[in-house]
Amino acid sequence: MQQLIRGRVLGFHADPSETDDNHRYIEDGAILIEDGRILAVDEYTVLARPDLAEIDHRPHLIMPGFIDPHIHFPQVQVIASWGAQLLDWLNTYTFPEEARFADPDHATRMAGLFLDQLTAHGTTTGVAFCSVHATSAEALFSAAEARDMAMVAGKVMMDRNAPDSVLDTPQQGYDDSKRLLEKWHGRGRQRYAITPRFAITSTPGQMEATGALVREHPDCHVQTHLSENLEEIEFTLSLYPEARDYLDIYEKYGLLSDKLLLGHSIHLREREIARMAETGSRAVFCPTSNLFLGSGLFDEAGLRAAGIVSGIATDVGGGTSYSMLQTLNEGYKILQLRGQKLHPLQAFHWATRGNALALGMQDRIGTLEPGSDADLVVLDAGATDAMALRMERAEALAEELFILQIMGDDRAIAQVYVAGNPRKPAAQPRNGRQG
Ligand code: GUN
Ligand code: ZN
Hints:
The chain is an alpha/beta fold and 435 residues long. Helix content is 37%, strand content 23%. It has helices at 44-47, 86-99, 104-120, 134-146, 170-184, 204-216, 230-239, 246-252, 270-279, 287-292, 300-305, 324-337, 344-359, 385-391, 397-407, and strands spanning 2-12, 23-34, 37-43, 53-64, 66-72, 123-129, 151-154, 156-157, 191-196, 221-226, 260-264, 282-285, 310-312, 376-379, 413-418, 421-422. Strands 5, 6, 7, 8, 9, 10, 11, 12 and 13 form a nine-stranded parallel beta sheet that branches. A seven-stranded mixed beta sheet has the order 3-2-1-4-14-15-16. Guanine (GUN) binds next to α2. Zinc ion is lined by residues 70, 72, 225, 263, 315, 318.
């Protein structure tokens, strides 16, 4: 069945930091969808037909759903844990909590609640770390499949420097990952990400096994962490004394490619930056996490100038919000501290098409191109009284976007469509956009 979704429509077709011809905005626009796909985007008057079912979201803004390319599913009850930097935070809060995901009932309950949080915050695709237990990945994929939601996920592989309850072995990590991958990768909208947690929690033997998986499945994403925290880097290099630098560990085991997502990538050396650029490896900026854990300030402009493609992500539960709007807010402030600017058009491009590009999934998600999956977010820039008050003085689209970026959160998400299906009860429009 065809359906018409009406509103103020905004989608990106190029990167605003590269060209002025980067987006299409239609004041009275509409998106024609059928069977979970976008058929056409145009002026409402061009697409309207008497036989079409219509949903009218005016005066709200309709965009491609947000993509969160780095988030930890088993940390839904770790978010907001006090007082530690990375390694202490992992040992004190995170590993004990992830141990609970050995229980399939717990994993199943949390998977549903995790996906509810993503959709409530306007995120339609996540790239998720699961716990070490295959049950956690099973639970997440099953829940995502039931909602027809495009997830990229993998069970973490970790075989040292953590409690036994969250450790596997090189062989078990390989076998479990392989079995999950064969079952879930490419099934409906699900994709498997090979997931060595980071070099500290993997022995050289496990890194070997990871390299074998990557060679056998070059079309899978690989996700891990790189150079988040200075103490982490020092410990990592002490565990791999022959490595030239942190990235060299992943390089030695054959993990570098444009499928590799390197969470954080903050404290990088020149050689690492050059190798990431040469191999197409992606950096993933996690602003709320980097501030919360006191990790450091991501160098967006520096990595861009070197030719590295970056994503931007929440990193819940080191990150402190599921909201990509709040993530863009904190990202803006980090770049301010670096003397760099995050323009609202660049910000909203990043959370949609930019993250899709970082994943190499721009043919399916992140834009409003006909043929794309109908994953959409409907944004209300007047969602709170404070936002509505500020909106009274907003004149341009970029200004409205910036208000959403700085003041917005889940209250600004009026609706979310996942493969064409509405997933959030429509909020009553409050004070609409003025002017
Ligand atoms: N490095 C290794 N594991 C983690 C994690 O769970 N969160 C963050 N922020 N960094 C990590
Ligand atoms: Zn992380």
